[in-house]
């Protein structure tokens, strides 16, 4: 037997393209976030509310990832933001080359905040760098307070946790204190926002923080 | 279920390092996979088998060193020097 030493990362091709995406974002001086969650946590609702509240202050462009349909792109477009839909045709996460190809349909020079809405999945998207400044994980109260412990990679790799649907807390066995403690047990540095996209609670704090991140990149 | 894409990524890296006339001599592809890599090893082995089937690498199998962390690396390949060279 003879051995050929290789020592290469399997995802090096993805990571190299993610680095090029990150360079493009830096040149355009935009803030890019990769929004991840399980299906139905409220990524698109959060995006709609965010675009609406930042209108006139922050120019938002959107990359939508879904397994099928452009329903989310239609929803986002109705709020007046430029949007490009990626249909993965069964793929469980976005990869950097898909995002790179989608960027050609957006005017990055006219974008302050780029939101990449990943495929709804709390597992696979954790391991794929798309070139974003940070991952934002959305977790809804209906999913239960144990999810950070059960899907730790996503919470470890994210910088921000948005807890959505807090208006439903009176009707659910979800303990929001336990949820946040569990999340901080996995990742003590996680910044947490508690919001309801239905009532609007907490969204001003979230949007003010986002606007400050955008301002820091453009300063 | 993204193990098939990872299997293809592994095969791409192997192709880039093994001279084409030695492809059929590859017996083992050794990987280092962390417990946080988000990879199901059994699924990856199945997908790799499907990826190499009918190719010059059909006799290659995966060997996995499990480590802690998020490593997902191709460590080396082992070739059978006595194998008939040529695809």
Walk me through this protein's architecture.
The complex is a heterodimer of chains A (219) and B (87). Chain A has 8 helices and 8 strands; from the N terminus they run βαβαβαβαββααβαβα. Chain A has 219 residues and is of the alpha/beta class. Chain A has a domain at 12-140 and 204-218: Rossmann fold (3-Layer(aba) Sandwich), CATH 3.40.50.300. In chain A, helix 7 links the parallel strand 7 (160-164) and strand 8. In chain A, helix 1 (12-27) runs parallel beside helix 4 and helix 2 (43-54) packs across helix 8. Chain B has 87 residues and is of the alpha+beta class. Chain B has one domain (3-79): 2-Layer Sandwich (hypothetical protein PF0899 fold), CATH 3.30.2320.50. The N and C termini of chain B lie far apart (31 Å). Chain A binds chain B through residues 1-13, 91-93, 95, 123-124, 126-127, 152-153, 156, and chain B through 1-2, 5-6, 9-10, 12-14, 17-18, 27, 31, 36-38, 70, 72-81. Strand 1 (2-9) of chain A pairs antiparallel with strand 3 (72-79) of chain B.
